[in-house]
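Structure tokens please, single chain.
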Amino acid sequence: MIRIPGMIDIRTQVNAAGEDWTSTTSAALAGGFTAIVAAADGLEPVVSQGLLTASLQSAAVQAKCDYAQLMTVQGETVREINRLGAGSAGFSLFTENIQHPQLALQNMHQITRAISNAPAELPLFFHGNASQIGAAIFSAGIQQRSIHIADIRTWDQLEMVLEAKSSGANVSCDVSAITLFLSQKHYDGAPEQVRRMLPALGTEQDRQAIWHHLDAIDCFVSGHDPQPDSIFPGFPALETALNLYLYAVEGGFLSLDDLILRTVNNPQRIFRLNSQPDTFVEIDNDERKPIDPTRFHSNLKVSPFAGLEFPGSVTKVVLRGTVVFQDGEVLASAGSGMPARRSLEIAGGS
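Here you go.
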């Protein structure tokens, strides 16, 4: 039996078909996560203060673990970004979003304006290709503010982050458990039902390069995005991420300290999330059993890892001294979760 602090998932897709804060936070607790930060680009992107408030109000009555919500900015709203985001965990900036093209910032001027005008106390999550990442890091450096590069999938993207860090830039980045363990080679020979749920993946060379430069990765995210069989596929990942991490620990690719750094300490520090005293996850690391999606607490019960055996089984989760998950059962009540980040008033906001 091993014990780790409650993990934090900094970019969780809550706003997906058939899912809500209750099902998503139940899945989080079952997977050993005691706080999640909801992504801003779900079925209905969080692009306004009203939508942000509505999401947080839903979380307040539905969430079973601690929660926060990101907000995204469109090109037409970058001029007023300084008046937005009160109560959010930060801003997501997209230079491409196939599911929601209207979210994409169209040019360097919009990117620079968004970075320069965003309230300094709110983190920036930047999504883009290698050249766009380089431009965003450069702009953030001129503005003397930090920036977080989200969803590293390729060596070119990571190389930009490595160069920025070596020059002293205040930049951080994350990679998903999916990217760490799956690449384009896994499309080949995979059953059709698996291929339908796999998101865009990097090459096997990209995946190996990320592992080789793991010291540059600040945070791990689960990659939870339950929408298979769509043109923008993804799958539930909160209840399998820890199994993948422990598989890497078992193989000597990670230490438990590495895991805690990237799923607890760094997320709390970089995104100014509240501490969770007397909070921990107990794991039976001697038990190996196959992934069984029918037992998921997520409403969508599919996984590309179904039937594969991994080490580790979450046996108990304690949040602020209260047992919220034990022996396969979520014990927390809806609405018992708390905001994961202190609400901030934005100058000029409403």
